[in-house]
Every structure is written in C-alpha cells, then in structure tokens.
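Lab notebook, bench 4. Still working through the backlog of constructs that have no structural model yet. Next entry is a single chain of 393 residues. Request: give me the structure tokens for it.
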Amino acid sequence: MNRQKQRYLDISESYYLLLELCCCEPIIQQAFSIIENVCLAHGVTMAGKKPTPNFQQFIDMHYVPFLRNSIRAMHMYGFVPWRIMRLESGDKVPEVLPPGTFRWTVEVPKDSDAMLSYRVKLNPGAKAEENIFVRQYASPNYMVSETSVMYATVSSPMSYVIESYKNMQAALKRQAHADAWNCTARVIVSNEPKEFAHEQHRKELFGTFSQHIDEFGRFQANKPTTQSDKIEEVFFDRSMNHQPAVYSLPAHHRIDPSPQLTPCADVAYLQAKYKFDVCSLLGVPPEMLITGQKGLEGSEASKARSHSTNRVFQAKMQAVSGFLKSLLSEVYAKIYKNAEAQFDILPMPRLEISSIEDLKVLHEIGVLQPEHTVELASVLLGKMKRKRQDDVI
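Model written out:
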C-alpha cells in the first residue's frame, strides 16, 4: 500500500513537471519553435481550390495558431485535445485545450475495437464543454511506468525527460546552496581556557545568583551568558556596513577553518544528457539547439552525421505536416457539417538564397529534386548569361 501511494504521488508530481517543461523550459520552447518555423513557415493553403482572400485571412488568423498549439500538444500528451469555439462574430474556430485545464488517462474503450484510447477529463473549475475531440498522434501505452524502479510518470511521449529534468534542477539547487554557503564570510572562533575544577564550581555559583536592578527598582536574576551568546551578539545583532578592521583575539582563543561544501553531482553531464534526450524525443538535430561544439567541425564523420540527421529531421517534419493536414481536414468537417476539404502544408523553412551554401542546405534536407538541380546547373553554367547577350543584340 505504501508503494502504491508513493506511485500516485510520483504521477501527480510528474503531471506538474510536464506542464512546467513544455510551457516554460527554454530548450523545449526552442525545439518547438524550430518545428513550428519549419512546418508553418509558408502558412496553410487549401488544395484543389483557391479560397477567397477573406477566408485565407481567416485561416491565417485562427487556423495557424491552432496548428502551433497542436504541435506542442501532440508532443506533450501524445494527442491533440481540441474543441469548437464560437467567436463574437458567430464564426466557429478550433481551439486546443490549454495546458492545466484537464487530465488524461489511458483506458480500454468499450464502444470501439481499439485496444487502448485516451480519455480526457476536465479539471474542477474549468469551463464544461461537451464537444471535446481527441486526435491521436502517438499510440497509447497502458501503465508502463507504474512499477518502474526509477520514476512513475503520466502517459506522455516526454515522460522520459521528466526524471532528467528533475535530477538536473535538484543538482542546480544544491550547487547554488553550496555556492551561497561558500561565498558567505564567516569567522569561527574556538575558546580553550585553562580552568580548574574549583573555578568551574565558583563560576556557576556566581553566574546563577548574580542580580541586577530593573527599571522598576526590582532585583532580577541575570541569565548566565556563554561564549556563544557573545559571538552571536557581535556577528548577528550588530550587523551593519562597516570598514574592514583587524582585531586581536583574547587569550586562549583561535580561529577555526570554515567548512567548505562541494557538490558531488556533475551538472554539466546532467545538462548534456537532458539536451540530448530532448533532441532525441522531439526529432530535432542537436546542432540546432547545442552550439559551441568543437573538435568535429570539418571532419568526415561530422559531415556524414549532419547529412543523416538532416534527412531524419526532414522525414520527421514530413510526418508532422501529414498529421496536421489530416487534423485540419477533420476540423473542417466538424465545423462545416461533414464538408470535405484538403489543405497543403509545405514543411520547408523560408530561406533566402544568397550563396551556393544555401543551395547545398536545400539539397541536404531533400527539397531540391533532380530536375531542379539540372535547371540550376544550366543557369549557373551560363544559360542566363547567353539570354542576356541575345537580348542586348
């Protein structure tokens, strides 16, 4: 029972850590921005028919932000929970449920042939809505981390990063506490007077029965003072901005060394591991998030690795764009009463071609096709120059 209770506490903690990760953490925000800029850099257009300028403006205003939130939700939860929202003008637009307004579980559905499905339940205090739809992106798993020896988490594609993030933040806090302790000036003084047995008895006797007269003329017994009380009075009760001064210690006193705190966790290793885990789960190449790497620039191994990672990244962006296309078709059918529509999303960043290196980047990510390279080669070899000469003649 104690182990099960601890698992429930871990799952509840992982829920809020996941919200903190995907809503505030800078590295994950940068990775999300890269995916959004690659997939949605050219906007959203309708396939087969050209929409009116007003409807295209309506798509850019309401559908593109919906897709940005969908990209974050699909990597954060493994699905996209959305609803139909009505504007003040009467138009209906899709909206992704904001983080923190709901919880989700993986259950065995009763009215479907699927083995597992996601179930979304709104938190207390959230606005109740019946038209909540769930678009699945990652296949659900059934209590995989419930009996884990490491950390029990909620069902999410980012569940593995939660423990890395928790350990890294704990190590950073311990290092900050150690630095605050080591950087604070402290003077530790020890006292070892030469005393005899009969003198100790006399000091206790006079210290107990010593009296003084208060402001009302009554006799009051003095509280016995110790050496630690005097030191506390000097260093705490009289703390102020002062000029440095040198004092000579009384007899039988000496200064002891202050203990130094040394954190044992390797913060650099935890940060590198966390960044690598984020890049692996989100499908973003580490070169886009981690800069300043030395030692492999220009080598054949680094070039081969960059080619492979660029192709894997482009394939990931193609998969994300395909999911967003199907999601928009479903949204359009729900809003406009089973009307069919297809959308085009081009997963390619906006790139101004200013040199041959830009063309090389386009070729590495798979944008340039063989027929395009033939045309570019003919232009670079003098086709355009001959045309200009003919026009002049």
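Notes after review: The two ends are 93 Å apart (CA to CA). The CA atoms of residues 283 and 316 lie 7 Å apart. Flag for follow-up if needed.
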